[in-house]
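During the reporting period, our protein records have gained a structure token line. One record among many is quoted in full directly below:
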Amino acid sequence: MEEIQEYIPITKAKNMLLETIRRIEIDDETVAITKNGVPVAVMLSMEKFNGLLETLDVLSDEAAISSLRKSIREGIADNWVSYEEVFGE
């Protein structure tokens, strides 16, 4: 899992908002905003945010999770299916 690259006090974040947003957009950083030294909010790119939403959507789908768990178990058991078996080529 990706870590937060920077922790910024809320006052500094307010004063440097545009610069911080540009950095998040260009460098795809994740920045935590702190209040009295305690993280209270996170700023991240829309791409990361949408990725998180998509991940949550998949994780909330019981059928998808069941299928993933089955695939992991089969992979651990070295029970692989060939490309030809899957796609009939």
Summary: The two ends are 37 Å apart (CA to CA).
